User: What shape does this take?
Amino acid sequence: HLSTNFIDILYDIILKFMQDENRPFNAQNVTDFMQKHGIKKTAVQKSLDKLSENNDLVAKDFNKTKIYYASQTNLEVPSPEELKEAEAQIQRLQAEITEERQAVNIVEKELSTVLHSLTDEQITERVQTLETECELLESKLVQVQASSSLVVPEELALRSKLFCAKFDNYRKRKRMFRNVWDQLLESSEKKASTLEEDIGIDTDQSVGLDCEAIQKTYDNLKKVRR
Assistant: This one.
C-alpha cells in the first residue's frame, strides 16, 4: 500500500507535468514519463482518476481510450491591453529576426566568396593534398579487394532475417495503432494533423523515416531469401 505522503507527492508531480505540458495525454503517456521515478502504471492511473475527480485534470473518453489534460479554469486570462502589448512585442521580435537573418545571409555570401577565392599557391597546395589523399584511398581499395569477404554469408543471412522480423513487427504495431487512431478520429471533430499535434504523436514523416526505402530493402531481402 502507498503511504499518504507518497500519494500526495505523486499527485503533485503528475499535476505539475500535466500543467507544464498543457496538452492531452493518455495513461500510458504519463506512465512513460513517470518511469524515471519508478512509478508503475497502476499508481499513475489512480492518480489521474483522483486528479480528474478533484477537477485538477479534465478526462475525456474517446471510445476505449481516456484522455487527460490540465484544467483550464484556473489559468489567468490576459486583458485586452496585455494581448495588444504581447502582439506588438511579437511583431518587434519578428522584425528583429528578419533583420538578423538578412545580416547572416550577407555574411554567409561574403564568407563563401572568400573561401572560393584561392590564390595560385593555395590551389597548388590543395591539388597536392588531394592527390595524396587519392593515393591513400586507392591503396586501401586494393587492400580491400585483395582481402576475403568482410561479411560471411551466414552473418548476412542472420542480419537479413533480423531486419525482416523487426520490420514485420513494426508493420504489425503500426496496424494496431491505425485501428485505435481511426476510432479516435471518428469520435473527434478535429483534423488528423491537429489531433496529432494536440496528443503529441510522432509520425514516420515527422521523424524523417524513409518508409519507401525501407520497404524496398525489405522486399529485396524477401526475394533473396526465397
Notes: The helical segments are 4-21, 27-34, 41-53, 80-115, 120-146, 153-187, 192-199, 211-225. Strands lie at 57-62, 65-70.
